[in-house]
Design goal:
By secondary structure, this protein is of the alpha/beta class. Helix content is 32%, strand content 18%. A hairpin with a 5-residue loop joins strand 9 and strand 10.
């Protein structure tokens, strides 16, 4: 299970998560986003489709079909690979126009991309949007939201430790708020994870950290989980497709994803 502390909070349940894609031991964000949203492995570069080009329902679509309010919030462009995996189905992550067209036709209650150039945000900008999004979505009986801090990845690609840590601080502030929200609302489940590792970050003998690559790696990532039913993750080593399967189970759907149909 590893460390149980995130954003200064001691979290109950921790898992290690495998992130490989269908055609590579090192995933990209399109394939890992699709696995996290739909429960299907796919090839790098593909959004919302399996390796045969077949579209499958993602967890946001499932939630909306069950009457839940849904949202997607990212510090990336809204057509970035991860938000697109929860809002579109296209053969290539670079198909921005097609992605925007599909997003415009969505039954979605909150959708926002925040990117506006290199290092564009202050440390409270994501937090302010998280507060706004949760305020809107929690007005309904049920809700689902995917929130992404994209610059932990972008700055790791740049091997810029200072800006990467700034992004982590921005993410931490939002997680603290989301955790407090979850503690007060016993029916909310909070899952905190990454779609992949970037930069091959290693700890040095003096306790500092350094990058070993400017790309993604196949390293496992953590899943931190809070809320009813999340004890099933405790201390486990899981595949990333198990995460949307669990989320679907909270809506009463037990056959979600690649091995559930």
């Amino acid at each position: 299970g590893g460390t149980r502390t995130f954003a200064g909070w001691d979290l109950a349940y921790v898992s290690s998560v495998a992130t490989w894609s269908n055609d590579s031991s090192v995933t990209d964000s399109a394939a890992s986003g699709t696995a996290l949203s739909s429960g299907y492995k796919t090839n790098n570069g593909v959004v919302g489709l399996d390796p045969d080009g077949v579209s499958h329902q993602n967890i946001r679509e499932l939630a909306a079909s069950m009457g839940a309010k849904t949202g997607v919030l990212t510090t990336d462009d809204i057509t970035g690979a991860t938000p697109s995996a929860f809002t579109a189905h296209v053969a290539d992550r670079g198909m921005s126009e097609e992605i925007l067209e599909q997003q415009a036709a969505l039954d979605i209650d909150y959708i926002k991309g925040m990117s506006s150039g290199p290092h564009p945000m202050t440390n409270n900008d994501l937090l302010d949007n998280v507060k706004e999004a949760l305020g809107i979505l929690s007005e309904g009986d049920r809700f689902f939201i995917m929130i992404e801090e994209a610059y932990t990845d972008k700055e790791s690609h740049n091997n810029d430790m200072s800006f990467m840590l700034n992004a982590m601080d921005r993410f931490d502030r939002s997680i603290r708020y989301a955790l407090a929200f979850t503690m007060f609302d016993r029916e909310t489940v909070l899952l905190i994870t990454a779609d992949h590792e970037t930069g091959g970050i290693e700890e040095n003998e003096d306790g500092t950290f350094s990058f070993t690559t400017n790309g993604h790696t196949g390293a496992q990532v953590y899943l931190f989980a809070v809320g009813a039913g999340t004890e099933i993750f405790d201390g486990k080593m899981i595949d990333n497709t198990a995460i949307p399967k669990f989320m679907a189970s909270t809506y009463g759907v037990e056959n979600f994803g690649e091995y559930g149909e």
